[in-house]
Hints:
Blueprint lengths: L2 H13 L4 H9 L2 H18 L5 H24 L5 H49 L6
Helix pairs in contact: 1-3, 3-5
Amino acid sequence: MKKTDTIALYRDAYLAGRDEVDRRAFEEKDVARQYAAIMSWKRRQELAAGATNRQSAQGSVASIIEGVRNASKALQSMEELSPRDAERLSEAVTQLRYELENFDTIRKGRRLRELRSRRQELDREIGLLESEGVEEC
Length: 137
């Protein structure tokens, strides 16, 4: 399936509930960025639905690494590579790098949200203890 086909398939669901500014910003992106945004959104939806667990994620990482290694071997065994094909490969690598960075950003955002939630709980508990007149020993 081409990127444009994937974008067309998921565009309406991706844009559902977004305001006009977000819609325009999405439409102004090039195809690679639209595709990346949709695939990231789709992955977040799957994670939120519990579609993956730690074991399957580790299996996925292993399969991704194996795929990259196989692609590297295939590239080394090629006798010729047209400029167009080289550009397509470069775009795929750029897309993979973007997806990895996006995944890391999402992970850090979740961690930050968890830490802030724990901090609020601790602040609330500290406040209760202080209101009871408890002091540190």
